[in-house]
Amino acid sequence: MTTPEGGATAAPGEVRADRPAPPRKDAAARPLRRGPADPVRTLMHHHQDLCARAVDALEIAAGLEAHGVTDRTAARFRHRDVFSLAEELYARVPRAAPDATPAAAPYATAPARRSRTVCAALQLLPGAVSVAAVAALASVTTATPAVRTAVGASGFALLALAVRLGVRSGPLRLRLRHGTGPRTAGLWVCWTAGYAVYGDWLLGQLLAGGPDLPHAAPRAAVAPAVALAFAVAPAAGCAHWFTVRGRRVLAASRGLEELAARVRPLLLAATLLFLFALAALLLGAEAVLGRGDVSAPVAAAALGVLLFLARLLAVHGFPEAAAAGLASAAALEALALALVLIARLPGLPPLGVPVEALTTAAGPAAVPAVACTAAALGLLVHGLRALTGACAHWPAPSGPAEAHRP
Question: pTM of the prediction?
Answer without folding.
Answer: 0.74
